[in-house]
């Protein structure tokens, strides 16, 4: 079927794809040092043994090269699922649709995100003198422990972390935007959307910090085959026994800061890029 020149199709797929790519790259590059510091704070080896404040951009190229396809895949899935299911439900059930759409997007995005996280976090916490490329890290993981336990280690824990995050962040973002629209004759600016994303991202980041901590410990564990306790519940239980509630929220401040700033940049760029793209194809 020939769909050339169909503006509805362009908006449905290419608009979130383009906007998601721009937003993902912008936030990942701008806030990468905070992510590095958060990862080192959560490392079982401790902050300074994992690199401290040095080399905070280590692993940036890995993230930059995959952030665009990851975020594009998420938003294409999210916007498409929303467009299919929102017309079928009453307005009061819209948050459930947003949660469902976010879950579809997160699971698909994790196909790219998890190997990226494996390589990135091991580079962020590596303190040796030998050069370790992201490809080499992933090849080594595959050769020693296979696809599921090596390259995709922590896939389930990443999904377990990201789904609750999206369940909180995306409905809050949509709800805050609705409040702005109701007070502004149905209109919302990119700046207002960015503010909504900042608050939503900060709240979601704080609540899901223990899950992010578990994911980090699982991905950084040196020997999966021997250490069978690298699952979310045992990892969190061990951390609680050793460091209490404070230990479960290790890295919460840089994580909140990163997601508040990231939410502002991410959703601001997303809405602005999406509006520009749709305006261009409306001509």
Give structural notes.
The protein has 283 residues and is mainly α. The protein is 76% helix and 0% strand. The protein has helices at 7-30, 32-42, 60-85, 94-124, 134-151, 155-182, 190-207, 209-220, 232-248, 252-281. Helix 4 (94-124) packs across helix 5, helix 4 (94-124) crosses helix 6 (155-182) and helix 7 (190-207) runs antiparallel to helix 10 (252-281). The longest helix is centred in the middle third of the chain and has 31 residues, at 94-124. The two termini are 23 Å apart. Mean pLDDT is 80; it is low at 1-5.
DSSP strand content: under 5%
* Residue share in helix: over 70%
What structural category arises from helix and sheet content? mainly alpha
Helical run tally: 10
Whole-angstrom Rg: 20 Å
Query: What are the segments in which pLDDT stays under 50 over at least 5 consecutive residues?
Result: 1-5
Query: pLDDT average, as an integer?
Result: 80
- List the secondary-structure elements in sequence, H or E: HHHHHHHHHH
Sequence-ordered SSE layout with sheet pairings:
Elements: H1 7-30, H2 32-42, H3 60-85, H4 94-124, H5 134-151, H6 155-182, H7 190-207, H8 209-220, H9 232-248, H10 252-281
List keywords for this structure.
disordered N terminus, mainly alpha, about 280 residues, about 75% helix
